[in-house]
Amino acid sequence: MTFSFKKNSQNEFTKPIHIRYETQIPQIDDDHDDFYNIVMGTKSIDWAYEEEVRVTRQINQTLSFCDVDKDGKAIHLFDIPPSLFGAIYLGANSDAELGSVMRKELKDKNIDIPIFKGTILSDQFKLTWERVY
Predict the structure, then answer these.
(1) Rounded to the nearest 5°, which phi and psi values hold at 38?
(2) Shortest CA distance to 102 belongs to which of 116, 121, 120?
(3) Where would a tag sit more exposed on the chain, N or C end, judged by fewer CB atoms within 10 A?
(4) Would you say which domain of life the source belongs to (predicted)?
């Protein structure tokens, strides 16, 4: 997947965090210079197949307050250009309705990216991905 990072409305670049996959939980204290990147950018080696890159934003960079979730937590919207996305991956336990909603939203906005659905293999600790749209 290729990302092109653009400046946001405050003329700041969005900085990606390339996830590090480790066998041990990192031991750091909260005054460590790279605390945020270590906490937000480290996962178990079990997830290495994801090759994840995270894009994080501060709440003060939000476009608007949207709503609250079922637990009463605030939902905020951020301006992320569609060109940053190469695909959408739906989890193995997601329902068909989610895929249909995503497909409709992409079509309505003239965004052409594939949607994949995960399947858990019964004999391995692994997911397979099938393109569904």
Answers:
(1) -70, -45
(2) 116
(3) N
(4) Bacteria
CA atoms within 13 A on the CB side of 38: 12
Which tokens in the block code for residue 29? 């204290």
Contact (Cβ atoms closer than 8 angstroms) between residue 73 and residue 66 = no
Report d(CA 98, CA 104) in Å as an integer.
10
pLDDT higher than threshold 90 for residue 21: yes
pLDDT digits (tens, 9 = 90+) for 26-35: 888 767 677 8
**99 close to 116: Cβ distance less than 8 angstroms:** no
> Rounded CA gap, 3 and 8, in Å?
15
List 118's β-bridge partners, or say none: 129
What is the spatial distance between Cα 113 and Cα 104, in angstroms, rounded to a whole number?
Answer: 12
Q: List CB contacts of 109: < 8 A, sequence separation 6 or more.
A: 82
